[in-house]
C-alpha cells in the first residue's frame, strides 16, 4: 500500500535541528526519518523504517546466501561470560551495566562473542558439526563518551553480527573469505564508495582483521592508501623498522639550552648557540622527543609509559590507544611528575627512561629511530640537552611502538610510493578471532582422530543503523537527501498538485497501476498544501524518481523528474508506469 | 531455500530440560526453538526464528491493514518522561533502571506510552493531524519477580505495542474498535482458542480495557464467564452491592469464645457453646472476617488496610493488588501488631477498625455484606466475639472493596445465571487510556474552533514472543509440538531415509519442486542418522505435514503424514507437490 502524505506520521522541518552537526544527519531529522530521544539514542519514524527495512533485507539476504543461519540472542545479558573473557572489565565505561532486582550483575550486550561461543559449546561437540556460521540483526549498546552525528555513532544501535566456527585456521580462512565476499556484495548494493582496509583488532583480540569504510570527509576513521592498492586504517599501519646506519656522529656532549622546553624553542636555540659544523640547519627531525603518558589498566593500576619519536612527529592518540589496549591512556600530570623527581619536564632524555634506568619507566621507540642514528634530546636536567646521542651506542630502549602520526606523503610500508590519507566511516569489520574466546570459555570439539581441539572463531559486523546514516551523508545536496535506488523509502514519489479534483482522481489511478506493477509509491495526496511545499518536501525526502501530476494533465502530460540529476521531462500520462519501471530496472542493474 | 537438517544449527534433546515446567516450554527447548540464557531471558535458535517471523508478520499485516504506521523507539530511555507520569516510581522493582557514564538515570522500556505521547506532541499540533495510530515491534523489559514458563513471562520479550491518538472519546472508541477487530483477526490467524475478557486497567490507568486470553490450564490469569457471553478477568469482576435487608437480629452481645483465632475454631465453638435459638447451625458464612494487610505506597510510606468479608471467603491477592495499585501489598506482621495494641489478633472486629475508630485503620467491606445483615465477628478482646452485630446499625465501614475471591458457581454480576471459572494466558491487552498520559505530558492540539484540547489516547499490546509460547502450550502431544499451519517453521518436513543414495537424489528433486511451488520445506537430508531418529525428530519439531521418502520409492510411493491426526497414507511420488499444496491450502482457509 502506498505511503500517503496525507496520513503519514511526518512533519518536515525547514530549519536545521539544533543538535545535528553533519549535513546528512540534519536532513534525516528535517525530512522526518529519525528523531532524537537522548544523546546517541534515536527513534525511527515511518520513512526511516522503510530505509532501515531495505538495509536489513540486503544484509539478511547476503548472510543467507553464504549459509549463515539467523538467530536472536538477548540484549540483556548476565555478567559471568563477560567475566570469563575479561571483557566485563576491559570495556570500561563503554559498557552499560545494571543490576536486576536480585542484585545480579547484568549488562547490555555491546557484541556477542561470548554468548554465541557458549551456545555452540552447549549444542555441538564434533568436527562433523562444523563449519558453522550464525548471525543476528539486533540492538547493541555502547555507552560512547561522545555519541556523534546522530545514528553514525549511537549508544543504542542496530548491528548485524555474525560468528563463524571452524576446526582449524584453514577453515577460518574460508569462513572469513566467504564473509568478506558477502560484505563486498552488501556494500555494493548499498551504493556508496567504500574501501577495505587492514585494521587493528583492538580489544576484540585475534589476528587478522579488515574494515569496510565508507569514504567520507565526515568519517571518524583515517585511513591510508598507496598506488599498489594497499589500504589500511592508520591504527593498523605498520611502519618498517629503519635499518641500522653507520655511526658518523662524534661523542655525545651535553650543552646548555636554557628555556627550551619545546621542540620549537630547542631548534631555534640549537641554530643560534650550537650551529652544526657542516653548516646544515637543525630541524625538528633531528631531535628525539620523549613523551610520557599514563596507562590505566582494566584493574585500575596506573603505569607510566615513555615514547621516543622524532621531534617533528606527534604521538597519534588512536594509534597509541589500540597498541596499549585494554589499558586506557591518560595524561601524565604535574602530580605524576612529583612522584618521578628524576624526570626534568621539557628536558627528559633516554638517560633516565627504561625499565633498567632511574625512572624504571618502560621506554619504547618509534621504529623510524634507526640504530646508529644521532639525536639531540633531553639531558635530564633543566635547561640542558645532549647532542649526538646515538641509538645503540649511547642509549637503548625497551622496545618499539607504532604510535607516531602517519602523514600524507610518508613512504608506504609496502615500498610502493607514498601514502595518501583519507577519512572514512566504519561500516563493517571482519575479524579472524582465532581461539581467544573459545579458549576462555572452553569451546572444544572432537576432531577426526577423537582428540579435543579448540574451535577457531571469526566475528563479522555490519552497522545497520550506521549504514543508513553513512548512506545519507554520501547522498545529498543543498536541498535534501538523494537515496540510492536499493535503499530508498519508495521507488517513486507521486506528487499530485493543484486544486482540480480530477488531478487527484487520475493520480490515485496511476498510483494503483504503479503498485500493480510492483512499484513502491510515496504518494503526496494532500489537498490543502501548495505545490511549492510539495516540491520542497519531495526534494527533502529524496525518493530517486518523482512524478508530478498537475496542470499538464489537461494535455495528457505528467512530469517525471530524476532527483539526483535534476533532469525533468514531460511524458504522456499513459507512459508513466512503463517509464518508471524502466528507470527502476536500469538503476537496480547499475548498482549490482 | 530449504532448511537442511544436515547443517541446521539444532541439536534435539531426548531429555526434558531441568529448568522447564510446562509441557510446551519443555518441547520448545528439546526441539531446539529456544534456549535459556538467564532467568526469563532466552535465545531464539534458527527454528524459533522461523516461528517468530511468522507471528511477527501476522501482527504487522493486521496493524498495517487498519492504517497503523510502524515506527521503532529505543528500548534504552531517559528517566524524565517516566517521572512526569509517575511510572518511574510506580513500576517499582519491575523496572530495569541503570545509570549511564555521566550518571544520568535511564531505564529499559517496559512499555512506551510516554515516548509516543512526546513524539506526537513534537510533530503534531492540530485536530487535522488526527486520528493517528502508530505501532512498533520491539524488545521490552520487565524485571519480573517470578519469570515463568520460559517465554510466557520473560524479562526480555518482544511486544507489538500500538498507540492511538484522537481528539475526543468518540474518536478513541473508533480507534479502540479498529484495534479490537485487528486483534480478533490476529488471534484467529494464530489458530488457538481465546476469549476476550473485561480487564482491570491496573497501573496503566485509563477507563476501559479488555484482555485477549488464550484459554489454557497453564494460564496465570483466571477469568469468569456466564451463559450470556459475559467474560471478565477475575480482577475486573464487579460484584454488585448486596441490597439492604430488614434487620431481624436482636441486640448485639459479646460472648466468650476462648481459643478461637480461626474461622474454623470459631464456628465449632459457636455451635457448641452458643447455639442459635432457631436451631440452625452456624457456618463460616455467618462470620465476618477482618483481614489486615500492609500497603506500601510508591513513595515508601506504609499504611495498614482492613478488609471485612464473609468468613467463608478469602481475600484474592490479585484482585486486591489491582484495587490498591500503585501501592503494593505486604503482610501485616507481628511487629506491626505491636504498633497497634488495640488490635486483638484473631479477634479483630469493626469496633476498632475505620478511620474514625481507635486504630484509625481504613476499613473496607466486601459488597456482599448487606446493610441490615447480622454477623458474628471479633470483639477486639482476646477470646471474645460479638454475635448479631448488624451492619449499618452497630457498625459501619469507610467504603467497599472488590477483593474477595470469586468462585465457580457465584451469581454472575450480569444477573444471567452463575459464573464458570477458567484459566488463560494474556496474549493481548487493549486500553482506552483517555487523557492520563497526554495530560501529564502536555499533549494538546487545536480543535476546529482554535481551542486547545488534550489528546485522547489508546494503547494496545500483543505479546509476540509470548504468543509463540502460548501456541506451543496449546498445540502439542506426548511426543512433540504440532504447529498450526500459519505459524509453523515450515509447511512441510521432507524426511529422506535409508542408505540408498537414489532416495536422497529424488528427495532433493522433490524439495526443489515444492519450493518452486512456493512451499517452505524443512528437509532432513542427514546421511548417517537412522530413520527412527529422524521420525522422532520430525514428531518433536512438529511441522504439520511430513513427507517420508524411503523404501517405497522403488514402487513409486512416498508416505504423507499429518502430524496432528497421525494419519498417514502412501501416495504416488508424482503427486507429492499437488497433495502438499492442497493440504496447505485447505488448512490456511480453515483458519481464516
CATH top-level class of the largest domain in chain A: Alpha Beta
Number of DSSP helical runs of chain A: 14
Q: If classified by CATH, what would the architecture of the largest domain in chain A be?
A: 2-Layer Sandwich
Broad structural category of chain A: alpha+beta
Distance between the termini of chain A: 27 Å
CATH fold label of the largest domain in chain A? BirA Bifunctional Protein, domain 2
Greatest interface: A-B, 53 and 54 residues
Overall tally of structural domains of chain A: 3
Largest sheet of chain A: 9 strands, mixed
Q: What overall geometry of chain A do the principal axes of the alpha carbons give?
A: globular
How many E-type strands of chain A? 32
Tell me the name of the CATH homologous superfamily of the largest domain in chain A.
Bira Bifunctional Protein, Domain 2
What is the beta-strand fraction of chain A?
25-35%
Write down the oligomeric state: homodimer
Rg measurement of chain A, Å = 30 Å
Mean pLDDT of chain A: 93
- Unreliable spans of chain A are none
Helix content of chain A: 25-40%
Protein name (chains A, B): Proline--tRNA ligase
Family (chains A, B): Belongs to the class-II aminoacyl-tRNA synthetase family. ProS type 1 subfamily.
EC number (chains A, B): 6.1.1.15
Catalytic activity (chains A, B): tRNA(Pro) + L-proline + ATP = L-prolyl-tRNA(Pro) + AMP + diphosphate
Amino acid at each position: 500500500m502506498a505511503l500517503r502524505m496525507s496520513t503519514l506520521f511526518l512533519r518536515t522541518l525547514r530549519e536545521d535541528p539544533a543538535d545535528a552537526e553533519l549535513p546528512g544527519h540534519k536532513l534525516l531529522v528535517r525530512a522526518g526519518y529519525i528523531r532524537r530521544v537522548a544523546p546517541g539514542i534515536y527513534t525511527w519514524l515511518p520513512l526511516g523504517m522503510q530505509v532501515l527495512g531495505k538495509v536489513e533485507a540486503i544484509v539478511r539476504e547476503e548472510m543467507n546466501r553464504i549459509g549463515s543461519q539467523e538467530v536472536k540472542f538477548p540484549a540483556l545479558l548476565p555478567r559471568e561470560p563477560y567475566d570469563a573473557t575479561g571483557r566485563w572489565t576491559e570495556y570500561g565505561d563503554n559498557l552499560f551495566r545494571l543490576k536486576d532486582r536480585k542484585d545480579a550483575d547484568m549488562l547490555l550486550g555491546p557484541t556477542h562473542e561470548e554468548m554465541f561461543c557458549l551456545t555452540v559449546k552447549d549444542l555441538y561437540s564434533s568436527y562433523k558439526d562444523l563449519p558453522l556460521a550464525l548471525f543476528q540483526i539486533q540492538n547493541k549498546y555502547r555507552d560512547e563518551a561522545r555519541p556523534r552525528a546522530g545514528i553514525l555513532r549511537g549508544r543504542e544501535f542496530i548491528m548485524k553480527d555474525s560468528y563463524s566456527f571452524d576446526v582449524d585456521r584453514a577453515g577460518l580462512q574460508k569462513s572469513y573469505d566467504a564473509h568478506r565476499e558477502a560484505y563486498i556484495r552488501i556494500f555494493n548494493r548499498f551504493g556508496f564508495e567504500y574501501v577495505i582496509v587492514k585494521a587493528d583488532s583492538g580489544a576484540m583480540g585475534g589476528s587478522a582483521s579488515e574494515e569496510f569504510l565508507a569514504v567520507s570527509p565526515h568519517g571518524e576513521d583515517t585511513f591510508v592508501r598507496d598506488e599498489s592498492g594497499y589500504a589500511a586504517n592508520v591504527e593498523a599501519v605498520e611502519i618498517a623498522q629503519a635499518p641500522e646506519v653507520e655511526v658518523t656522529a662524534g661523542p655525545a656532549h651535553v650543552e646548555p639550552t636554557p628555556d627550551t622546553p619545546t621542540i620549537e624553542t630547542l631548534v631555534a636555540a640549537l641554530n643560534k648557540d650550537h650551529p652544526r659544523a657542516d653548516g646544515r640547519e637543525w630541524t625538528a627531525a633531528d631531535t628525539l622527543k620523549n613523551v610520557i603518558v599514563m596507562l590505566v589498566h582494566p584493574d585500575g593500576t596506573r603505569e607510566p609509559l615513555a615514547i621516543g619519536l622524532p621531534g617533528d612527529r606527534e604521538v597519534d592518540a588512536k594509534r597509541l590507544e589500540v597498541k596499549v589496549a585494554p589499558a586506557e591512556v591518560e595524561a601524565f600530570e604535574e602530580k605524576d611528575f612529583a612522584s618521578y623527581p628524576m624526570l626534568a619536564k621539557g628536558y627528559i632524555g633516554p638517560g633516565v627512561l627504561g625499565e633498567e634506568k632511574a625512572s624504571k619507566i618502560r621506554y619504547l621507540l618509534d621504529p623510524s629511530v634507526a640504530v646508529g642514528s644521532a639525536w639531540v634530546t633531553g639531558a635530564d636536567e633543566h635547561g640542558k640537552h645532549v647532542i649526538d646521542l646515538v641509538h645503540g651506542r649511547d642509549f637503548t630502549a625497551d622496545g618499539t611502538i607504532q604510535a607516531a602520526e602517519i602523514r600524507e606523503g610518508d613512504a608506504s610500508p609496502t615500498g610502493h610510493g607514498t601514502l595518501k590519507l583519507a577519512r572514512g566511516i566504519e561500516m563493517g569489520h571482519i575479524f579472524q578471532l582465532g581461539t581467544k574466546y573459545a579458549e576462555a570459555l572452553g569451546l572444544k570439539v572432537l576432531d577426526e582422530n577423537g582428540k579435543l581441539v579448540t574451535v577457531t572463531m571469526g566475528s563479522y559486523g555490519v552497522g545497520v543503523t550506521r549504514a543508513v546514516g553513512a548512506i545519507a551523508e554520501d547522498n545529498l545536496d543543498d536541498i535534501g537527501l538523494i537515496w540510492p535506488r536499493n535503499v530508498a523509502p519508495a521507488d517513486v514519489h507521486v506528487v499530485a498538485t493543484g486544486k482540480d479534483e480530477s488531478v487527484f482522481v487520475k493520480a490515485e489511478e496511476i498510483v494503483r497501476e504503479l503498485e500493480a506493477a510492483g512499484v513502491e509509491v510515496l504518494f503526496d495526496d494532500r489537498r490543502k498544501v501548495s505545490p511549492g511545499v510539495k516540491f520542497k518536501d519531495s526534494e527533502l525526502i529524496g525518493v530517486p524518481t518523482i512524478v508530478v501530476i498537475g496542470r499538464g494533465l489537461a494535455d495528457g502530460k505528467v512530469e517525471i523528474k530524476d532527483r539526483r540529476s535534476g533532469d525533468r521531462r514531460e511524458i504522456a500520462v499513459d507512459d508513466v508506469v512503463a517509464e518508471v519501471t524502466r528507470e527502476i530496472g536500469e538503476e537496480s542493474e547499475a548498482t549490482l
